[in-house]
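Structure first, sequence second, as always.
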């Protein structure tokens, strides 16, 4: 009988053994800092897309052993209930070869270009939206999930492993929203057992949002405060997205904030400890 490989502790911050092949131009760097996001057509060599896609698809099989880090973005996991939006936290625990790819070497170089030489990859995430799935990933800011007593210099790089379109759930951003404070959020559907967050209805006007369609192996890059969203997957295929998270620093705020949505989730988790909670992305 085949045995599952034991998970490893990924060294996300290690320098890559590969030299970067895809980096940003000065114009792209300026666009990111002005608008809080950036879309690029390629972040890896074309021949590597199928390699990463094969690793990714294997992670979502029972044989991968990643069940302990498999969550449902749209709610707490329940025995016998199908997962609506499968997501794996820290997939490199189960596929450390991801960190040896040219994709990740380029990701790490781009993080330093945008947030300075101290920027490091801090983790990764995989979301596998099934075909004809009516669930969107609602509008949110990544920082709404983090410690409200800290200030961050952070970014995420979102990489589709097939074309990302409006039909299957490409990223949408509100330009310039990285300059605002964290807007009021709540657990998705106002259910505190749900791991995902959404902007409180009526708390923000999203009329200036832009959609970023991409080819397979492209990427969007966004600041930790930038408002973003992905629509439902109405296509015939899975919408595979690999996300790398990076940070240059986190430091204590002089005046700590209070994120009441996090307090609600912690209280619900304490009341219902059997419910499996996770984290989010897009």
């Amino acid at each position: 009988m085949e045995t599952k490989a034991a998970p490893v502790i990924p060294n996300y911050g290690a320098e890559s053994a590969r030299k970067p092949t895809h980096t940003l131009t000065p114009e792209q760097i300026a666009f990111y800092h002005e608008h809080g996001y950036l879309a690029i057509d390629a972040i890896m060599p074309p021949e590597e897309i199928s390699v990463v896609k094969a690793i990714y698809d294997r992670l979502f099989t029972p044989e991968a052993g990643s069940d302990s880090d498999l969550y449902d973005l749209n709610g707490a996991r329940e025995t016998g209930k199908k997962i609506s939006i499968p997501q794996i936290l820290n997939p490199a625990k189960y596929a450390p070869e991801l960190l040896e790819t040219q994709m990740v070497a380029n990701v790490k170089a781009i993080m330093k270009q945008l947030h300075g030489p101290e920027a490091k990859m801090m983790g990764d995430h995989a979301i596998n939206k099934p075909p004809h799935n009516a669930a969107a990933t609602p509008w949110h800011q990544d920082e709404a999930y983090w410690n409200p007593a800290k200030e961050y210099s952070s970014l995420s790089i979102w990489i589709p492993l097939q074309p990302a379109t409006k039909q299957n759930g490409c990223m949408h951003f509100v330009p310039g929203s990285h300059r605002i404070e964290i807007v009021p959020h709540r657990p998705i559907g106002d259910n505190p057992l749900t791991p995902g967050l959404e902007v409180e209805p009526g708390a923000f006007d999203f009329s200036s949002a832009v959609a970023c369609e991409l080819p397979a192996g492209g990427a969007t890059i966004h600041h930790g405060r930038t408002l973003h969203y992905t629509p439902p997957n109405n296509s015939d295929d899975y919408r595979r997205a690999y996300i790398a998270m990076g940070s240059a620093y986190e430091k204590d705020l002089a005046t700590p904030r209070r994120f009441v949505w996090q307090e609600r989730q912690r209280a619900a988790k304490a009341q219902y400890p059997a419910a499996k909670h996770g984290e989010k992305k897009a």
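Margin note: The helical segments are 26-35, 46-59, 102-115, 260-271.
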